[in-house]
Amino acid sequence: MSKLLFIQTLGCAMNVRDSEHIIAELKSKEDYALTDDIKKADLILINTCSVREKPVNKLFSEIGSFEKVKKDGAKIGVLGCTASHLGDEIFKRAPYVDFVLGARNTSKISKAVNTPKFISTDINYDDSEYAFGDFRTSKYKAFVNIMIGCDKKCSYCIVPQTRGDEISIPANLILKEVEKSVNSGAKEIFLLGQNVNNYGRRFSNSHEKIDFSDLLVKISDVKGVERIRFTSPHPLHMDDKFLDVFVNNDKICKSMHMPLQSGSTRVLKAMRRGYTKEWFLDRALKLREMCPDVSISTDIIVAYPGESDEDFLDTMDVLEKVRFEQIFSFKFSPRPLTPAANLPMIDDEIASRRLSTLQNRHTQILDEITQKELGKVHRVYFEELRDGFQVAGRSFNNFMVSVKGSEELLGKTLDVKITNPKRMVLYGEIVS
Ligand code: 5AD
Ligand code: SF4
To answer: What are phi and psi of 85, to 5 degrees?
Structure first.
């Protein structure tokens, strides 16, 4: 009988994909099967995130609770970005942990489970060409890594310390993975990287010159690919060629993540983002003009050290001008090993006030956007059962759309007329 694996994944889509790789390895090489019941598990894994302080604190409370409920002899492993960044401090703070495997060391999972107190957190380790087995969380969409690591040195960000330098995965391997995914039923391909539109700057082998726009075109030519999404692009690298391919290739879903971080050119400079408020606005508004149906999402940090009221108003100004369909917003959180780690912090009350001003205004904008969806028809790829009698999927421009229905809709792409638009979900009826 197989041994049982319980795995919890925190953080971003990259972590979701790393967990899939780990599950694939443990299934094929170590004969594990997945379980949702932690008490029955022989191996308990947590794939961690260290982007802000909160998820790091969560790690120690989570593994403490694992230790209490685990069955005798079950192993606990800590993976991912916090494993990279804390290393053997994890053993010191939680001696019952059996192994620690950093985000750039996923391919060593078999060794980790078989070696007492194994630790590997090398951020220079290159597993960009490592061939993983098959495991996908969703039958309908496939995450495909196109690069590992990140070469940007944003002053607030810990990722270069946890995932190392940027290496692009050779295009032939990516295309093979895309073909494999399509052949096993995924119509949607979700490309992953810290900085996807910087693809092609450095490969682990000598490789023909190819940039992200060229890669998108190659992927769109693979038979069976119906939808392509990607995350995260960087506003700095949104050149005209990229916008042109994005807008005019009809397999590329019309939703763009444009991580703003701050609307103030002064703060952007301090953050080392490499673009100005004007550049960001130019790109976002050009995109809206070229592609009126596009959804634009963003990440915003408020109260970066030194952010004045005026700087914050610049962020609010960009919000008004771009009217993002979705924002992910955070108070600045100082991260160890980053240039901004020891800068004087903005008073927390001010930070909280700015965050709620931003979020409240965005909610109003979103309500206005949502109401305009009433009566529109969206092409929806159904991929998820909800509450027993609803089936949901994404519109081409990334709205979550839900209709009455059951399993037989899963995997189908159908036109839906929106009859009851809500902030998070547009409810509708199938029209074809
Ligand atoms: N503090 C707050 N938010 C951060 N992010 C990254 N680092 C920090 C930090 N130190 C946010 C950024 C990034 C998102 C994934 O997390 O907005 O785009
Ligand atoms: Fe993903 Fe960044 Fe969190 Fe690592 S630190 S899991 S790269 S969001």
So the answer is: -85, -35
